[in-house]
Specification:
Length: 836
């Protein structure tokens, strides 16, 4: 049966108020009638109304979808069904009352009356017909007028009786005119044989009708015949059966809630088409196809008593309209009901849900490439209602993935607005299947997901682009669901204006930093989609997730102090210093130097006597620091392998994963164009004596260690706090260890290294030192390891100290029988957010 609800309607071509449309400009009847839709509910407040105005149109349109729909009161069919389930009436009585509810609701007791349109009585009629012999004579007499055709004066649909019918279109001016007298009509018959079966089309004409009105009804009868034979030839090879009994097709005034109906009685298939469809050719033909498909279903012996059977019958019958007439799109009137009930159990019945469910089979046949409709109907006919759900579970290939794609397509907004059926299919999830929220800074939203059998759920989160403080978004899930047989979790994201789709079934946490320089994490909207491909069981509390938003720190103030101690034989070197910096956080994972101030002092002793001292300092400031013009101080481990970040880290020679808690680079930020200024004084034996250099010796320990591996305890809510003592000669730089770094590349990138005097194996390149070395050579003192004692100076003199210092300055180098210790303390405090 084909059902809809008409609020008001006049037959085109049969009144002067509505003009007949020609075939090329045929407007669907659905444009002239109004489906009985529940009233939408919008949970809008002045606050979120203001927020919506700040959104761009695409996202605002998503958010403006109804939050819910007004719960409609029970209709008469449901009230009768409830009375039967409560044991108040018998099944026979309930079936009779459902017929009354559909055709003559005024005959119902007040307790069964409703202002809502009744469901079809088609299945009640089928039950009464199949159990006719067991019915009481009283019930038979009450049912019979609704079964016999209109050419019998006893028929409820005979024009002789239409004055009494208050629930049909008899209140229309046209019909009031027709029924002015019992003799003012005649029944017309078109009887013919098709494919071996006797077929009769019945309709009536008013004797006082104009020629135009008569022709309109004749045209409708002709269109019914054409649609019958055309659809017959479409369904016969598909279903591999054909009708085995005669057919009677009546064009009559049915209740306003029906386009047509089908049943079997007295050895004949019966199809009824509502006369209100007159002059709407596409709807006439689609309705005939729908009802004829029910005949083919009957040939395969499918039942009608259970929810599953009724669902399968009506969902596939609506699907058959598209199969027979793919470009008519009459079935598109089902889309609002379909999209607002995605949260419900996929197999169900009532309030036209079974009709709206045609989209499930439409997706399977037209997008998933699976057409087993004849087989499932045949199986249900042979094995009964209980075979329907197992059949779907076994015959939908890769059901979890297929069903999840069904869920994705049903979003029906970019980038998955794939539905196209001779025009775009409009609509998308709404009502209880669609949860939505505009997230503010430092806000949290939690949800627990439960899914009925075959249900779908959609969660929309919008992150306002006009809130400069909202920079960080974290999505956490209770668990991975990747191994679940039926459950799937997908995400649609709008990142920097572009939509992307990802499978998040195995994700437990996802982080986004909107401050990332390449905008690759500038998340603007997120839709989480859950699908339950299990059509038999509910998934209760199957997942939990949390959405958190927060600010994102942009700048960090760093204070670092260090003490370095080197020993080699009788030589001891001590240095200490400070570094004060402002760091800028980039892409949430690495910190670059924005400005830096560094100073240090160092002294060397032999047998307690000072033989060398040095000091140095520099300061530098960088506008708009980045990986190319500044130095990285902290390298954090990304939450995942991010392509852009990988390229950034490769500039530091990174080829493998970073340590879990990151790397802290200790070396001073001596950048290109920045020099370490200071002086050094050596105290040589006589006759050289005191030699002063205009360059410092940067043997500070932090330049030699270069970088250290961070621990979990080095991080805190305010930033970073490090306190470590390092055995320098046993230290393995984490850059080298973790990333197989080419050290020359590090030197090139961290320009401070190549700026250090004496970085190579040679002595500091200064005029004073060159003069001193020339003097040593001239006096046969070039082998500094064999210098004899002079005065109070031991064998390991200032010359040997120079050799030790030179070797010690090379990062990673060791001195024979030497040791070196670095104590480092660093505190970095987050000070400024993005957006401030």
């Amino acid at each position: 049966m084909f059902v809809f609800t008409i609020n008001s309607f006049f037959i085109p071509g049969c009144t002067s108020k509505i003009k007949k449309n020609n075939e090329d400009n045929d407007k669907s009847i659905m444009a002239q009638i109004s489906l009985k839709e529940p009233k939408p509910i919008y949970n809008k407040t002045p606050e979120n109304s203001h927020e919506i105005k700040e959104l761009d149109k695409e996202i605002a349109d998503l958010f403006n979808v109804p939050d819910d729909y007004e719960e409609l009161p029970l209709n008469s069919t449901e009230l009768i069904e409830k009375a039967f389930n409560d044991g108040k009436i018998t099944l026979e009585k309930a079936s009779l009352l459902k017929v009354f509810a559909d055709y003559e609701p005024e005959r119902l007791l007040d307790e069964y009356k409703s202002n809502q349109p009744a469901d079809t009585c088609e299945y009640a009629i089928k039950y009464l017909v199949d159990n006719w012999d067991s019915l009481s004579k009283e019930i038979q007499n009450q049912v019979l007028p609704y079964l016999i055709p209109l050419n019998d004066n006893r028929s409820f649909f005979s024009p002789h009786n239409k004055k009494e019918n208050k629930n049909t279109a008899s209140n229309l001016n046209f019909f009031n005119e027709v029924y002015a007298a019992n003799d003012d009509y005649e029944v017309c018959e078109d009887e013919f044989i098709y494919d071996g079966q006797k077929i009769k089309i019945l309709y009536y004409e008013g004797k006082k009708w104009s020629d135009k009105k008569r022709q309109s009804i004749k045209n409708m009868a002709s269109q019914v015949k054409e649609a019958l034979t055309y659809s017959w030839e479409k369904f016969k090879p598909l279903m591999k059966v054909k009708p085995s009994k005669p057919l009677i097709i009546e064009i009559i005034d049915l209740p306003k809630t029906k386009l047509g109906e089908e049943f079997y009685y007295d050895g004949k298939y019966r199809i009824r088409i509502n006369i209100l469809l007159c002059d709407f050719e596409k709807t006439i033909k689609s309705t005939v196809a729908h009802e004829l498909f029910h005949v083919f279903q009957d040939e395969l012996k499918i039942g009608y008593n259970t929810v599953d059977e009724k669902w399968l019958c009506e969902a596939t019958a609506v699907w058959s309209e598209n199969y027979a007439y793919p470009d008519y799109n009459v079935e598109h009137c089902r889309h609002p009901g379909f999209f607002r009930t995605l949260d419900k159990e996929r197999i169900g019945y009532g309030k036209l849900f079974e009709y709206d469910s045609y989209m499930f089979f439409y997706y399977l046949t037209d997008y998933a490439g699976m057409n087993f409709i004849p087989e499932i109907i045949k199986t249900a006919g042979k094995k009964g209602s209980e075979s329907i759900r197992p059949f779907l579970d076994e015959n939908i290939k890769n059901i979890k993935e297929t069903y999840s794609k069904f869920a994705l397509y049903n979003w029906n907004w970019p980038p998955v607005d794939k539905y196209y059926d001779y025009g775009k299919i409009t609509g998308g999830p709404s009502g209880k299947s669609f949860k939505k929220k505009i997230m503010k800074t430092d806000e949290e939203d939690k949800a627990t997901v439960s899914l009925k059998p075959g249900a779908l759920m959609y969660y929309l989160y919008i992150f306002n682009q006009k809130d400069p403080m909202l920079q960080h978004v974290t999505v956490t899930f209770d668990k991975s669901i990747a191994d679940d047989k039926y459950l799937k979790r997908q995400a649609i994201l709008r990142i920097n204006g572009k939509w992307i789709v990802e499978d998040w079934s195995d994700i437990t946490e996802k982080q986004f930093c909107k401050a990332k320089t390449d905008k690759s994490e500038d998340i603007q909207a997120l839709i989480l989609i859950y699908s339950n491909a299990n059509l038999k069981e509910e998934l209760k509390d199957v997942d939990k997730f949390t959405i958190q938003t927060g600010k994102c720190y942009k700048e960090v103030d760093l204070k670092l102090s260090f003490e370095y101690n080197l020993k080699s034989y009788d030589f001891e070197w001590k240095s200490k210093g400070n570094m004060i910096e402002k760091l800028e956080i980039k892409d949430h994972y690495y910190y670059v130097v924005k400005n830096s101030s560094y100073n240090f002092t160092g002294e060397g002793f032999s047998e307690g006597k000072k033989i060398v001292e040095t000091s140095g300092s520099f300061s530098v400031s960088i506008n708009n620091p980045n990986i190319n013009n500044s130095m990285v101080r902290v390298l954090k481990k990304p939450a995942e392998n991010i392509e852009g970040l990988k390229e950034t880290y490769e500039k530091y020679g990174i080829k493998e994963n970073i340590p879990p808690h990151g790397i802290f680079v200790t070396a001073p930020a001596l950048l290109q164009g920045t020099s370490l200024k200071g002086n050094t004084t050596f105290y040589f034996p006589e006759p050289i004596g005191k030699v002063s250099l205009s360059d410092p010796l940067p043997l500070d320990g932090i330049s030699q260690v270069i970088a250290i591996t961070m621990d979990m305890d080095d991080w805190n809510a305010k930033g970073i706090s490090i306190s470590k003592e390092i055995n320098v000669f046993n230290h393995k730089c984490p850059l080298t260890k973790a990333f197989l770094v080419d050290f020359d590349k590090i030197i090139k990138q961290l320009n401070n290294i190549e700026s250090m005097p004496g970085m190579g194996s040679q002595m500091p390149n200064s005029k004073e030192m060159q003069d001193a070395m020339e003097f040593l050579k001239e006096n046969n003192m070039g082998n500094i390891l064999n210098i004899e004692n002079q005065g109070n100076t031991s064998k390991l003199s200032s010359f040997t100290a120079i050799n030790s210092i030179t070797k010690a300055m090379i990062p990673g180098n060791k001195i024979t029988k030497g040791s070196a210790t670095l104590k480092i303390r660093a505190n970095a405090v987050n000070t400024k957010y993005y957006g401030e």
